[in-house]
């Protein structure tokens, strides 16, 4: 199966990802729904609120009984009843009458507005003077004013946020249908890689970084990380680790290998999976050109470069979008959609770039005299500290040969919020 495919552009890879099938839907309780992606649209089965409510403490009145009221010429109203919180009141607000009401109380019939207590002067136990008029609807939340009956609230593919959960709670939806979280296995390979727990690292070896960075990244995209393993550079060991991972996971993310010819090694692993279909073998990007993507049955297999910066950038640029698409995220399916938040900034250094290759350049974002600046962080892709110092990255498209200082750029922020 080791056919060699033409190196793909970043856009071609994203287009391939958009053709992936979504994972199945599952029902989760509202408490677990934040951050999940809706599988079916949601519309309102009832109005919110389902009765008119006061939004201020005061008196429920007929607005026309207060028209023209002022401090010098107050409107005199008789208090006939009091609304208790959480209970309907049987009394009706009649002409010249007022019913005391707390914020959130149910508006009595006949009333169309609430006079705030501050604009009333008690005359005696049963009488108030209103010193400022109200218009119909003042200080009242009407039935369905928050959410209308049948209102279309969220489409399939909507990424649920805390406030969305609040809407679902208001509607009494105790459970929602969302896409299953992708289960991801993270395999790191290389004879030079030793576990983080290694106290004295032998000469020629380094501690494992990628297992940790890739795990943290894919979790950020809502995936569950199952199997994690450091695998030696041995074909049989790699095949058996991949087989185990593919059996029980939706996605396998393998990083690194041996310095020479590792790509062939990863491709050779794929030869042992008859269903494997190589989708990407090399991407015209920097860093991370030697990236592999294959489909194995319904499963995805990513082969990422071993350099920690390259692995993280490819994960962010392609693996995370693939995880969002598996979860049916509409935001990941839009043309030109990028994962995460962005901000606009002014570049304060020249950024060289080669025509025909998309560059991902880490930057520091700072505010200088009210303007947001992006300062490139240069460094080799073996240097994880460059990303730790950066706030995000700028993408220089393949057709652009470098950017001059003063260019306005979009910074893709590492932090999602
Ligand atoms: N002669 C050439 N050499 C290299 C080329 C090339 O085109 N010709 N490409 C370079 C580029 S670009 C990259 S990227 C790397 C590709 O690396 P591999 O994916 O083959 O992976 P490795 O060789 O195993 O690792 C590269 C580097 O990353 C370190 N590494 C690997 N895994 C981890 C880990 N889990 N934690 C921390 N660091 C890790 C590994 O020790 C190597 O230093 O090849 C270039 N070479
Ligand atoms: O493609 Mo490599 O990832 O630039 O270091």
Automatic annotation (TrEMBL):
Q: Pathway membership of this protein?
A: Cofactor biosynthesis; molybdopterin biosynthesis
Q: Which organism is it from?
A: Desulforhabdus amnigena
Q: Name one GO molecular function term.
A: molybdopterin molybdotransferase activity
Among PANTHER family, the record links this protein to: GEPHYRIN, MOLYBDOPTERIN BIOSYNTHESIS PROTEIN
Q: Spell out the SUPFAM superfamilies in the cross-references.
A: MoeA C-terminal domain-like, MoeA N-terminal region -like, Molybdenum cofactor biosynthesis proteins
Q: Which residues belong to any copy of the MoaB/Mog domain?
A: 185-325
Superkingdom, natural source: Bacteria
Task: List the record's Gene Ontology CC terms alphabetically.
Answer: cytoplasm
Q: Which cofactor does it need?
A: Mg(2+)
Q: From the UniProt record, list the reaction(s) this protein catalyses.
A: adenylyl-molybdopterin + molybdate = Mo-molybdopterin + AMP + H(+)
Entry keyword set? Magnesium, Metal-binding, Molybdenum, Molybdenum cofactor biosynthesis, Transferase
Keyword Magnesium belongs to the record:
yes
| Record's function text | Catalyzes the insertion of molybdate into adenylated molybdopterin with the concomitant release of AMP.
Say which family it is in: Belongs to the MoeA family.
InterPro entries tied to this protein: MoaB/Mog-like_dom_sf (IPR036425), MoaB/Mog_dom (IPR001453), MoCF_biosynth_CS (IPR008284), MoeA-like (IPR038987), MoeA_C_domain_IV (IPR005111), MoeA_C_domain_IV_sf (IPR036688), MoeA_linker/N (IPR005110), MoeA_linker/N_sf (IPR036135)
Q: Which Pfam families match?
A: MoCF_biosynth, MoeA_C, MoeA_N
Q: Could you say which EC number(s) this protein's record lists?
A: 2.10.1.1
Q: What is this protein called?
A: Molybdopterin molybdenumtransferase
């Amino acid at each position: 199966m080791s056919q060699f495919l033409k190196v793909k552009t970043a856009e071609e890879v994203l287009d391939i990802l958009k053709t992936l099938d979504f994972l199945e839907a599952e029902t989760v309780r509202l408490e677990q729904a934040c951050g999940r992606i809706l599988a079916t649209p949601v519309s309102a089965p009832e109005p919110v609120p389902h009765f008119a409510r006061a939004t201020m403490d005061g008196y429920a009145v007929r607005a026309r009984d207060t028209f023209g009221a002022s401090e010098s010429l107050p409107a005199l109203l008789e208090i006939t009843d009091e609304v208790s919180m959480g209970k309907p009141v049987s009394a009706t607000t009649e002409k010249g009458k007022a019913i005391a009401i707390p914020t959130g109380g149910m508006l009595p019939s006949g009333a169309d507005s609430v006079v705030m207590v501050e604009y009333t002067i008690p005359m005696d136990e049963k009488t108030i003077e209103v010193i400022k008029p109200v218009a119909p609807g003042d200080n009242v939340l009407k039935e369905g004013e928050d959410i209308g009956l049948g209102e279309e609230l969220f489409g399939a593919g909507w990424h649920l946020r805390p406030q969305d959960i609040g809407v679902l709670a208001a509607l009494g939806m105790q459970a929602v249908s969302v896409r299953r979280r992708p289960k991801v296995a993270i395999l790191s390979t290389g004879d030079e890689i030793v576990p983080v727990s290694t106290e004295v690292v032998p000469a020629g070896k380094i501690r494992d970084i990628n297992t940790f960075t890739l795990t943290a990244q894919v979790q950020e995209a809502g995936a569950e990380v199952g199997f994690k393993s450091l695998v030696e550079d041995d074909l049989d060991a790699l095949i058996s680790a991949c087989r185990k991972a593919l059996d029980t996971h939706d996605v396998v993310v393998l990083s690194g290998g041996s310095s020479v010819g590792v790509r062939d090694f990863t491709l050779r692993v794929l030869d042992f999976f008859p269903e494997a279909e190589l989708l990407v073998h090399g991407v015209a990007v920097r860093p991370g050109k030697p990236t592999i993507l294959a489909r194995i049955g319904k499963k995805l297999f990513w082969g990422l470069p071993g350099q920690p910066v390259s692995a993280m950038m490819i994960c962010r640029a392609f693996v995370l979008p693939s995880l969002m698409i598996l979860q049916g995220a509409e935001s990941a399916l839009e043309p030109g959609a990028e994962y995460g938040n962005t901000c606009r900034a002014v570049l304060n250094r020249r950024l060289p770039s080669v025509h025909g290759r998309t560059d991902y350049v880490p930057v520091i974002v700072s505010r200088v005299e009210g303007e947001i600046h992006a300062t490139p962080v240069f460094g080799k892709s073996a240097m994880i500290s460059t990303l730790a110092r950066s706030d995000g990255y700028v993408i220089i498209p393949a057709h652009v040969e470098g950017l001059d200082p003063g260019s306005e750029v979009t910074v893709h922020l590492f932090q999602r919020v």
